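Is arginine placement plausible here? Inputs below.
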Amino acid sequence: MKLHQTVAQVVEAAFLQAGLDNDAILLQPAGKPEFGDYQVNGVMGAAKRRKTNPRELAVQVTALLQENTDVIASAEVAGPGFINLRLNAAFLNQHLQAALADEHLGIATVAAPQTIVIDYSSPNLAKEMHVGHLRSTIIGDSLNRVLSYLGHKVIAQNHVGDWGTQFGMLVAYLVEQQKTGDADMALSDLEEFYRNAKVRFDEDAEFADTARDYVVKLQSGDEQVLDLWRHFVASSMQHAEEVYARLGVLLTPDDVIGESFYNDDLQPVVDDLMARGLAVESNGAKVVFLPEFKNKEGEDAAYIIQKADGGYLYSTTDLAAIRHSVEGFKADRLLYVVDARQALHFQQLFTTARKAGYLPANVTAEHIAFGTMMGEDGKPFKTRDGGTVKLMDLLKEAEERATTLVQSKNADLAQDEAVHIGHTVGIGAVKYADLAKSRTSDYIFNWATMLSFEGNTAPYLQYAYTRVQSVLRKAAEQNVLAGDIHVTEAAEQQLALALLQFEDVLTQVADSAYPHHLAAYLYHVATLFSRFYEQCPILKAEPAVMASRLSLATLTGNTLKQGLDLLGIDVLQMM
Ligand code: ARG
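Reply from A.M.:
I modeled the complex. Tokens:
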């Protein structure tokens, strides 16, 4: 349900009745539960504008609020003119009941669904996926899940780097390897493949010439070289698919539209921007100069779209891709989940695309920037000898560590059971540690913290879920049934209130594209459940109370499960 909006409407009506028409009500969840459920801060501003006494005005609004007994249990003036609200228990009960009865947890789908293109993961296929691709892949995936859940049409775009000069070198090396008969072996470690190809390229002038020749052949559509390129790309893509499968992300091969796809659109884009006078020739290159962005010298920063040798750039492909999303997919909103260090590229891209008319005013484009994953030393995460960490290795290590951990907590676990739990907890921990932080900040990657069963971690939340399930299992064994919800105790009331805020939080994530709001919410719910569990006996309560508490526990479990799923994290029945 839209709890915030529902309460806001009640407050707005009271403001209107009190003659405060154009004043913001400034409704927010109460800072402390002792104060109530919500707080209205708008009276002070309204009083100031009218040069009246804020407390008197607050008393007047409060009296009006109290008349709405359907929603409001109590309204009290506090401090210089705040109003603290407590919601009516019957109102909460009714909406909890509705959420419990609904597969979609009482969450409406949006009235006006948008077509939203999310560009995420998007690794360069010349190399193996490394930790740098983790954030884009899981943040994008979570946004995909949340926006889809709310009823939007999401089109995932895996804009893989599968084109460009380095592919000439890679194809040349592939041909060499095929001659020695070890091509498949060589391709099994892409990092090494790339390194070896680069060594050949730097050492051997003839090899380098062949590589350059292949670039030309690729661009002119030579079928034989294209076949080799396809072979390389497919093998690299298969590696990415393995990472996706282990991570459990939604991306499928159908979502891949690589840079190569736009090859034929690049010259038309350059020509069009020249014709519009947006791009000009500068030292032989075609460049867009935008007065909005200055370089260090204070001049308009250059956005190069074609090099002097005729080659195209990242920028050219992204301009073509925008046209494709807007014209082809009829997108209303474009989200690019890409490292914050590419901020200037996206600003120049969006500004150029707006001026060229590729990005009409009714389509929004957002760079969903994220910070860097750091090691304990506060520097970008690396292997001990300073190399890049392969994403696959990181995920395997997470699973191994989690498996050892669950085995240490429960020695009776069968091996396959332990491995399954280890996978779910390990992958969940890596994802959650990332998604729980505000995406724009850098964060320090720490195994001990993310795998802890205490604090704001995946294991804590997954464990909270199993606790709910264990209560429900016991209830089933004892043949007791859940029933009508009647919240009375403070701990129940706070949990109930939080459960009804799920839609508000999802809407916030959808609008802001910051998944950490959802993580914080789930942690809040789990903490409140834990308090409820300690303070309100469930299976020892008298029948009506027990039935109500079982329902509350069920809804908590459903909410945790759904919420974690929207972060791309699985739950377990026991752990
Ligand atoms: N392949 C790029 C990289 O690894 C990311 C691509 C992001 N998407 C885009 N449309 N520019 O940095």
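Short version: The mean pLDDT is 95.
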